Amino acid sequence: MAENNLYRKSLMLKASVLLLIALFSLPLMAQKRQFNLEQLIYGGTEFWNYQPDYLAAEFWGDCLVELEADAAVLTQDQKGEKRHQTLFSSEDIDRMGFGRALNLMTTTFPEATKPWALVRTSRGTILYDWENKAVLWKQERIQSDTQEFCYPSRSLAYVKDYNLFVRTADGRDLQVTQDGSRELLYGRSVHRDEFGITKGLFWSPRGTLLAFYRMDQSMVTDYPQVNINFAALDDENGSRIATHEPDKYPMAGETSHKVTVGIFNPQTGSTVYLQAGDPTDRYFTNIAWSPDEKTIYMIELPRSQDKAELVAYDAATGARTRVLYTETNPKYVHPEHPIQFLPWDNSKFIYWSERDGFNHLYLFDTEKGELRQLTKGNFVITEVLGFNSKDKSIIVASRENSPVRVNYYSVSIKNGARKMLDKGEGVHSGILSQNGLYIWDRWSSPSVTRRYDIVNVEKPELSRTVGDCADPWADFEVPEISGGSIKAADGTTDLYYRLIKPTHFDPTKKYPAVVYVYGGPHARNVDEARNWGARGWEIYMAQLGYVVFVLDNRGSSERGFEFESVTFRHLGDEEMRDQMQGVAFLKSLPYVDGERLGVHGWSFGGFMTTNLMLTYPDVFKVGVAGGPVIDWKYYEVMYGERYMDTPQENPEGYASTSLISKAGNLKGRLQIIIGYNDPTCVPQHSLAFLRACQNAGTQPDFFVYPDGGHNMSGHDYEHLHERITRYFEDYLK
Predict the structure, then answer these.
(1) Are the C-beta atoms of 518 and 535 separated by less than 8 Å?
(2) Strands, DSSP E only, in 554-605?
(3) Number of helices and strands (H, E) in the chain?
(4) Distance CA 657, CA 50 (A)
(5) How far is it, in rounded angstroms, from Cα 216 to Cα 183?
(6) In what helix (H) or strand (E) does residue 692 lie, and over which residues does it extend?
(7) What is the mean pLDDT of residues 398-406?
(8) Structure confidence at residue 610 as a pLDDT band (50, 70, 90)
(9) Which of 103, 128, 290, 422 is the most interior residue, by most CB within 10 Å?
(10) Which residues are catalytic?
(11) Would you call 643 exposed, middle or buried from its count of C-beta atoms within 10 A (0-12, 13-18, 19+)?
(12) pTM of structure
């Protein structure tokens, strides 16, 4: 009996010990990691380790090839059947003797029916035949920050020392221009990258002709930027004296540059210029070639930007042949897309227009003009992926299903009938196969970290998932992120927001809140993507105990013309009214401390941050404004005058939206951060505001990145967000 009692006591003791171990272990097992900025901020040393997996792929005709750093692997054949065949590896390229293979994830497949790949190597580019393991063509690398390659002719256009050159397939270098300089630029993007312009070189379809921009900016005032020359400071033989490196910067209402368009013929060595007339105060945009290379098309606007003309030119002579379409609007017309010809009909093309209030597609004939509107409704088309030649349709991305979603549709050329190609959730981005039969689709939603699908355009029900990425934040304490909508200040328009609650949220507590804002044209912050589009810094702030709120006000992008243009001639006014609706919503939440509200934004968001701090000084306690516009008359011509007209035409609007006159209103803590050499929102903005604050006796704080531009890069970007965070920690907590 005594032995049995002893045995039972021993078992009970062991059980108690095991229970205690289990109880103490539970918190350790359940405890998750905390983020740091190096993991959350682009430029951080650990950032890429905590992003969803990226699967690169390209279509070879209608076959899909997944691209790894060191291998190209066929994963689907042209019939849509699964495959797994390595086509070639980096070792195969290395053996070709033309340098070491660089990342094969940039490989392209220019011929739908031939086993050829364009591959970048340390020496240049090769056309590689993987079946015969042979190099069919090669071109040495050229050091140039502006270049455009044309596969059909194997020609490369490039800019060197301000002049334009063409390297032919056989390696000859043809000098196109002789007089290039800082004041006369060739082959560069013009009009300060407005109107959808991203480049200045445009090969014809077969590469027999090259169109290029020529920009004379000799008449444009220099903005006096300074190069501090940090490298020389570490060199005892180098000059310690900063140098003058001005930017050509046409401010609103000031003299702008003059652009012309040339056409170079590599076979004859001759150049003709389009006979567009006097380029003074005119914009030439959205250059496109006809399939037969005989005609070049351009959309032209006056400086007022209230009219757009689609104009055709004879590519051989440069003669202006006809105006195919004219669109006017008393506010502005904003073309951002060149025309796109139907692959099966060289006489018909697609034209983008907002004329009915939303960005839609129209079908045109080169001789008959406009035929019909192809898409219609209270939504915007965001992208044309390409065409399905088999069923004569356009494959588009649009926001038809929801203003916070981007989904794929096929659109019939015949009658405009639309068919959704995905499952109707999330935000999608992809590429289309050559014949338009498949989409390589990368997408996410609040419940999907990142997923890769092969979408069958003709039979969407046969689409399949090929990659479902694990959540790289699974081991971290991720705050609760939600999306929703409120009404705008007009009482009728829906505005969409993102709300992030503090980590370890306690509904009985009162938390400080930070509003992150942009609010201007061309951008939006809230989408039904992973984490509702939350930025890493927002996650970090939630971890530190802040509520973070982001609202897309009227004036932001992809909601239609009325939604965007309500701000016309008075940038900031309606945007702030909408943001204050968001503030009212925030204050209505029982866990938000309405006495501890902060605001932060960059560029237009810096303008909004400063404006909110000065216009509502009793609402916001702390603000951090990055690269802010302070007075729109200091901003550039193309963007500024589109939304504000010129200072001469709209003096009241410029005066009322200037923050200089409001400098005396500052009550809270405001930190302004800029790049010392910002070429977009030039330092004059912030310096003028600081002077106004000195005159008014108010006390903003100021921080400068000595060699920074409009946005910080590299590890400076992580440093920047540490700076922003500390400011809120010091003054808002």
Answers:
(1) no
(2) 592-602
(3) 12, 44
(4) 41
(5) 6
(6) helix 684-696
(7) 98
(8) very high
(9) 128
(10) 603, 678, 710
(11) buried
(12) 0.93
- Give 155-213 pLDDT, tens digit per residue: 999 999 999 999 999 999 999 999 999 999 999 999 999 999 999 999 999 999 999 99
C-alpha 710 chain-centroid distance: 15
Q: Are 515 and 549 in contact (CB under 8 A)?
A: yes
- 2: enclosing H helix or E strand: helix 2-30
Q: What distance, in Å, lies between the first and last C-alpha atoms of the chain?
A: 66
Confidence band for 30, pLDDT divided at 50, 70 and 90: low
Decide: helix, strand or coil at residue 150: strand
**Could you tell me the CA-to-CA distances from 337 to 212, 285, 323, 474, 695 in Å, in that order?**
17, 9, 17, 40, 46
> How many Å apart are CA 357 and CA 370, to the nearest integer?
18
Q: Where are the beta strands (DSSP E) in 282-359?
A: 282-289, 295-302, 307-314, 320-328, 340-342, 345-353
CB of 259 closer than 8 Å to CB of 281? no
Q: Are 573 and 653 in contact (CB under 8 A)?
A: no
218-232: pLDDT as tens digits = 999 999 999 987 766
Q: What distance in Å separates the CA atoms of residue 187 and residue 287, rounded to the nearest whole number?
A: 13
Which secondary-structure segment (H or E) carries 233? helix 230-233
In the three-class reduction of DSSP (H, G, I as helix; E, B as strand; rest coil), residue 655 is classed as: helix
Summarised one tens digit per residue, pLDDT across range 321-337 is 999 999 999 999 999 99
Q: Measuring CA to CA, which residue among 537, 545, 536, 551 is closest to residue 498?
A: 551
- Residues listed for the chain: 733
**Residues 673 and 703: beta-carbon distance below 8 Å:** yes
Characterize 545-584 residue by residue with b for buried, 16 or more Cβ atoms within 10 angstroms of its Cβ, and e for exposed.
ebbbbbbbbbbbbbbbbebbbbbbbbbbbbbbbbbbbbbe
Only one residue has tokens 């990142």, namely 450
Query: 3-state SS string over 356-406?
Result: CCCCEEEEEECCCEEEEECCCCCCCEEEEEEEECCCCEEEEEECCCCCCCE
In the chain, the amino acid numbered 672 is I
Give yes or no for residue 19 having a pLDDT over 50: no
What b/e string do you get for 239-262 counting C-beta neighbours within 10 Å, with b at 16 or more?
Answer: eeeeeeeebbbbbbbeebbbbbbb
Q: What is the C-alpha to C-alpha distance for residues 322 and 297, in angstroms, rounded to an integer?
A: 10
Burial class of residue 668, CB neighbours in 10 A (0-12, 13-18, 19+): buried
* d(C-alpha 627, C-alpha 703), whole Å: 11
Instruction: List, as one string, the DSSP characters of 471-511.
Output: -TTTTB-PPPEEEEEEE-TTSS-EEEEEEEPPTT--TTS-E
Cβ contacts of 52 within 8 Å, gap of 6 or more:
444, 449, 450, 469, 470, 471, 472, 530
> What type of residue sits at position 415?
N
Per the prediction, the chain carries an average pLDDT of: 95
Residue 270 has pLDDT above 80, yes or no: yes
Question: What single-letter DSSP state applies at residue 49?
Answer: G
